[in-house]
Specification:
This protein is mostly beta strands. The protein is built from 1 helix and 11 strands; from the N terminus they run H-E-E-E-E-E-E-E-E-E-E-E. This is ChrR-like cupin domain-containing protein.
Length: about 120
């Protein structure tokens, strides 16, 4: 299993990892997939112009932006930004420039819209 320490990820080591399709123009590298009641942890890589439609958080979601800028209705989050989305919160996500984020979900999200 590839190294996924904080130092490795924040110094650009994520560029060495294998990503697979997740959504249109978004790929994923699972660090720890959902298993039973355990949270999921992954890296998401958004191409420039990619987005995820409106969805609701069924559990806590935390995001650390490793590269680029991720946006939602509340603002733009550049490299080093730490975002917390509370259970029950809703938003859509996009990246005009492309980005890579480290994300942890307590539970999978519920999609409210589809692109």
């Amino acid at each position: 299993m590839p190294e996924t320490t904080r130092k490795f990820l924040t110094s650009g080591g994520w560029k060495e990892l294998e990503f697979v399709p997740f959504r249109e123009m978004v790929t994923i590298h699972w660090i720890r997939p959902f298993e039973g009641d355990q949270p999921g942890v992954a890296l998401l890589r958004y191409e420039a112009g990619a987005g995820v439609p409106r969805h609701r958080h069924e559990g806590l979601e935390t995001i650390l932006v490793l590269d680029g800028v991720q946006s939602d209705e509340a603002g733009d989050y550049g490299r080093g930004s730490y975002i917390v989305n509370a259970p029950g919160s809703e938003h859509s996500v996009w990246s005009d420039t492309g980005c890579v984020v480290l994300i942890q979900w307590d539970r999978p999200v519920k999609m409210l819209e589809e692109k």
